[in-house]
Design a protein that fits this description.
Two copies of one chain form a homodimer. With 318 residues, chain A is α/β, with parallel strands linked by helices. In chain A, 22% of the residues lie in helices and 24% in strands. The first copy, chain A, is built from eight helices and 15 strands. In chain A, the strands form three sheets. In chain A, strands 1, 2, 3, 4, 5, 6 and 15 form a seven-stranded mixed beta sheet that branches. A six-stranded mixed beta sheet of chain A has the order 7-8-9-10-13-14, covered by helices on one side. In chain A, helix 1 packs parallel to helix 2 (78-87). The first copy, chain A, starts with a strand and ends in a 13-residue tail after the last helix. At the A-B interface, strand 7, helix 4, helix 5, helix 7 and helix 8 of A face strand 7, helix 4, helix 5, helix 7 and helix 8 of B.
Amino acid sequence: MVRVLRAAAAQMGPTQKADSREHTLHRMLRLLDEAAARGATLVVFPELAFTTFFPRWLIEGEALDQYCERSMPNPDVQPLFDRARALGVGFYVGYAELTAEGRRYNGSILVDRDGSILGRYRKVHLPGSVEPRANARYQQLEKRYFDYGDLGFPAFRAGPAWRDAIMGMMICNDRRWPESWRVLGLQGVELVCIGYNSAAYDPNGGSTEDASLRTFHSTLVTQANAYMNATWAIAVAKAGEEDGSGLIGGSCIVDPNGRIVAQAQTLADEVITADLDLDLCRQGKEKMFNFAAHRRPEQYAVITERAGVVEPAVLEDH
Amino acid sequence: MVRVLRAAAAQMGPTQKADSREHTLHRMLRLLDEAAARGATLVVFPELAFTTFFPRWLIEGEALDQYCERSMPNPDVQPLFDRARALGVGFYVGYAELTAEGRRYNGSILVDRDGSILGRYRKVHLPGSVEPRANARYQQLEKRYFDYGDLGFPAFRAGPAWRDAIMGMMICNDRRWPESWRVLGLQGVELVCIGYNSAAYDPNGGSTEDASLRTFHSTLVTQANAYMNATWAIAVAKAGEEDGSGLIGGSCIVDPNGRIVAQAQTLADEVITADLDLDLCRQGKEKMFNFAAHRRPEQYAVITERAGVVEPAVLEDH
């Protein structure tokens, strides 16, 4: 069996706070149509794709609910599911999940080509803070609005329509943490789907990192972690200026050698595609990164024993 | 205190099997002199710097001992220690260690500017095989010749002569494993020293990876893991054709943003230097990679629970 899968990254330009959900969904349908017309059978949308990146705002009480999905699918997003199924295209999409118990997660789903939900994921690595930063125009309140993901990093085995691919999901900041990738790698992952909304610069005026450096970071971690786990990766941005706060683009499709095979050139709605030969993962998985032969977990204990840094003592006399 | 340290990577060209130890040591002294003349106070030499990369050969019995150091320093290498101390320069060097009990390790040491040994390391991620590959001209027999390193990945706090830097060591293949970096990162490492001997292509005729791709891999993992742990890194090759078997170059000094600040341009003896501002690590360690705030070890259990891959089941009916 030739295990080639044509996939698309559907980068989205900015979504303003005032944009209607219908308008945003219409953009997503157009991206889906374009990807399908180019032969893709998998389309990866960004994190929190149906709305603006609302964690930059301090929002109290029930006003938050308008940004959340109480079930998936639901009437607001059903047209995306219907169109995808009609086209025979599956997709990854990120969204804010509100559970029946009132918990919120920064979540994603993987929807198969027949419209069934192949997998669910909830973001583990929430950045930002619980308390708003005083006197800041823009916040990063993911730690306030969301619970930490409680599903681990599960890998899912697709069916023949996706060449029996072993697939995994991350959301945004997860991609900067090699642990996310390794937990998927230890399940033999062949394709990692990632949506992100990453600040292009310090929105509150800091100047230590610019958009160029932040895009470099995003691309670098995707490339290296794909290589170190011998997997394909598709990383997809919501990009551009949302209500004056910039987001990087740089959506990319990366092969198991860590090479970029396609990359977005704009900060707007843009589809990129590539043919993913899943068997290109085999060389890495069988040789350099044959985990069973070469990993030494007995030397890694501290990785799971503690979260934070313990420095060696400063020498008194040297 | 301004925490700037001028460091050098002392890339070495090839060392043939027939080269005398004196000849090789003389080359190292010249590299040391050049680095010191350029103001470096730390010089990083490659893995197995005193000899050819002997694990490519099947060597039986006591013939192996000529490639090993029974103590460090010892009379064969004492001139390097003496010159370094006279110059006020410390160094990292890789070598094959033979213990009093007859065990062999692929080891390295970090020698302080006063000539004292600041730290010892033994390579954890041994590549290759125990049994020679039949009918192959070149072997990769590290798993045959060496025991797995049993010292973990210890970080060492230098004294004021190196700005109280927190330093760690890896050897070659270790750098491709994010676990190596994370164990050091969890000790607050600010500078990782790495020596390597990495094949430029399949020495036995395979053609899936060429020197360009293998150099890319080496540089990519150094950059990304430096960024993901907010540390400086110095990765140093033994490069060029050793008895017909090619080794990549690409020695580099990488900043805590993952950017290359200096890189070797040859496959020969070559010194590159850079000024390392250790406080550039702080932004990453305090914000994006504030491990105590953002890591979620409870989701990483599988990383230390098992070495190898367990794939999700193939779907029977989908």
